Amino acid sequence: MLFNSPEFLFLFLPITLIVYFLLGKYSPSKDYPISWLVFSSLFFYGWWEASYLLLIIGSMAFNYSFGIKLQSILSLKVRKFLLGLGIVINLGTLVYFKYMNFFVEQGNAMLGTNIYIEKIVLPLAISFFTFQQIAYLVDSYRFETSEHSFLHYALFVSFFPQLIAGPIVHHKSVLPQFKSEKVFKFGVKPFFIGLCIFTLGLFKKMVISDSIAMYSSPVFNLASEGASIDIALAWSGALAYTFQLYFDFSGYSDMAIGLALMMGIRLPINFNSPYKATSIVDFWRRWHITLSTFLRDYLYIALGGNRNGVARRYTNLLLTMLIGGFWHGAGWTFIIWGGLHGSYLILNQLYRFMLDKLNISFSGSVYNNLCWFITFISVIVSWVFFRAESVDVAVVILKGMVNFDSFPHVEIWQAFIFDFKGWGVSILQIINGKPSNTGHSAVLLIVTLLFACKYLPNSLAMINKIFTINLPKSIESSSHVSVEKVGKSFAYATFPMCCGILFAWCVLNMNRVSEFLYFQF
User: Could you say which of 328, 341, 440, 480 is catalytic?
Assistant: First the structure.
């Protein structure tokens, strides 16, 4: 079930919220509303494929029981064995469902064999709930988890707002909330703010991301067919996907935070204007924050971090990003994407080290904009591999991006720029929510989104300016999005109307409901 589908918006969500708040108000125990949310979340998950309910329920039961055992008084040797066994079983399950076909294909190609296995359907959210539960096992081993009932644990893993595509929630930020009586009581302000955040996320997905997709998909499809791609087409496709992915995934994360906040539960934010980053290090502090936090805390540090010299530090950094890339998908394109970002991070660290050694510092708007430009171009190049169906397709796009011989002649540019009728028609089409596939519409959307991502506040920052809410940048800086006193202002008075207009705009686009790009990661 998709957040942007009619059955979710007009059936599942209203029924879930009404029953949840009624149980929270009238039931004798808070276990009743929690049980209802667990049931609703499993129903939400099973809507796609009911048979995989056994997988997620079995995974929750296994990891919960292992977590309890790891917190008991056992010898260090036994606890290490149990932790290792738990991680191996979790990763083994993930490898089977997500990577078995890939490994068999690569083995056949390398060894010349002809081993065949049926195409394994990837269960929804397995990458996300596997990482969440591995973190829980590791923290149980470190005695950093508290006693929780299985009911609470099941909600922590299966909670439907964040189940399919994150954020990757940490037990420290979510499980303690289930002990609070305030969570299960209807609150006008949290519900209203959550609804606003959800609406902005829905608008990002249904109007912005799905609109810009019409300029990225055809380019990558042409490349997959072996067609020659000129420089204008290649850059329009790469830039369009750069914004499509951002508004799709950040839109989902906003909707997750908004849905949870409507029910009184706070989730950490996952994006903080990553396209404003002036370095790759800065980019990973802003992009998919919960994933980068997990990779740092449970992989990079586990590999040794920066404790064993410079060479080992950079090796660990590269390995972490390679594994992070492979986590996204079973393909060489994802491995190369992770390797690129690992290499970027190493170069970024070496550059900083060199400046420190030479006692050189740069500042000023020109330098900052240059750093932003280099970072942004580097990210775009990596997204080409992330999007491409194969390495060959990515190479075709990248060759097109540097094919300066195909740059349009001056006469063509002049005719394009001074085609005022074309610009006017495109503007009206975009306003009506039906942009065409013309060059004018593509340029208008890409330039507008570039300006918005670089200079305007993101959706959560905008909500913060209006309603005064504390937005954490990561799990460790704050465990949740806390709602403070709502100030009276003109924006506060008009914002409900604006959100209503955006929601109506989304409803009008429901004839083209599409899956999220992270729907089956």
Answer: 328
Residue given tokens 């499509």 in the structure block:
244
Distances (CA, A) of 359 to 348, 363, 371: 16, 14, 19
């950094």: which residue's tokens?
317
Angle in degrees, 0-180, between the axes of helices 231-262 and 439-455, rounded to the nearest 10:
50
DSSP code, position 329? -
Q: Residue 470: which of 166, 253, 257 has the closest Cα?
A: 257
Q: Residue length, the chain?
A: 521
For 142-185, where are the alpha helices, taking DSSP H only? 150-158, 160-163, 171-174
419, exposed or middle or buried, with CB in 10 Å at 0-12, 13-18, 19+?
Answer: middle
Q: What is the pLDDT of residues 85-124, one digit of tens each?
A: 999 999 999 999 999 998 898 898 888 888 888 888 888 8
Tell me how many helices (H) and strands (E) the chain has.
23, 2
Residues facing 470 on adjacent strands? 482
328 is annotated as an active-site residue: yes
End-to-end Cα separation, the chain, in angstroms: 15
Q: Exposure pattern of 69-94 as b/e (b: 16+ CB <10 Å)?
A: bbbeeeeeeebeebbeebbeebeebb
Nearest to 97, CA basis, from 114, 111, 82, 117: 117
Count of beta carbons in the 10 Å neighbourhood of residue 122: 18
Q: Which residues contact 501 (CB under 8 A, 6 or more apart)?
A: none
Residue with tokens 């580097």: 378
Token couple for 374: 């280099």
The reply to whether the predicted model has a pTM over 0.85 is yes
pLDDT of 499-515, one tens digit each?
778 888 778 777 776 77
**CA-based radius of gyration for the chain:** 24
Contact predicate 156/175, CB 8 Å: yes
Place of tokens 């329920």: 57
Residue 110 burial by Cβ neighbours in a 10 Å radius (0-12, 13-18, 19+): exposed
Cis peptide leading into residue 435 (ω within 30°) = no
Sequential DSSP letters for 452-514: HHHHS--HHHHHHHHH-EE--SSTTT-SS-EE-PPPP-HHHHHHHHHHHHHHHHHHHTGGG--
Q: How far apart are CA 152 and CA 388, in angstroms?
A: 40
- Single out the residue of 187, 164, 128 nearest to residue 256, CA to CA: 164
